[in-house]
Design brief:
single chain; 9 strands; Trp Operon Repressor, Chain A; five-stranded parallel β-sheet; two-stranded antiparallel ribbon; alpha/beta; Alpha/beta knot; about 20% strand; binds adenine
Amino acid sequence: MKIDIISVVPDLLQGPFAHSILKRAKEKGLLDVNVINLRDYTTYARAQVDDYAFGGGAGMVMMIEPLVNAVESLQQQTVYDEIIYLTPDGTTLNQKTANALSLKNNLLMICGHYKGVDQRFRDHFVTKEISIGDYVLSGGELAAAVLTDAIGRLIPGVLNDETSALTDSFQDNLLAPPVYTRPEVFRDWKVPDILLSGNHKLIDEWRHEQSVERTKERRPDIMGE
Ligand code: ADE
């Protein structure tokens, strides 16, 4: 899979993909993330990419022209399955969306800044608008990093033990059960006996019950979705 990300602060995206699972995905040739600097595509003086909002009001708006220049230039190399604009007024990201996007070949993400991008760009180029939660970030970069991470780890072959994505929280609309590791006893806190029993059928049942209990208690809203 290829993920291209258009940003006005590309430096913000240098760190997140250089470690751990996403680094391994890149090394295995399963995920190729490229960050594109929007300022390379503006024809305005001093690499300007934003301007005052028509109608007035506080805050700048990202101009359509540099965005279209960048997208159309990238489209000469790549056919994108989705052009995703990260924005707080998009559809809230969930595991189902991450699962679906992990099956695509090429994604283009657009990071907004200031008051957002000119609506005409959203109307004519963007195919999906995603929010990572009901709060406002200072730009779309961290949201793009979150989305890329959520998608990247699901690409077949990226995780060593592929079943581990299947038992994540939110797959099956359940939160993950509690987990334990050595030592068996720390202070006087003991690991539940069942997990040491070696009976895998009973362990699976126990984990499922724990998942259901945890979900009922913490996230009844996602049950039976
Ligand atoms: N840009 C600013 N806030 C955002 C959010 N919550 N989700 C996605 N993109 C954003």
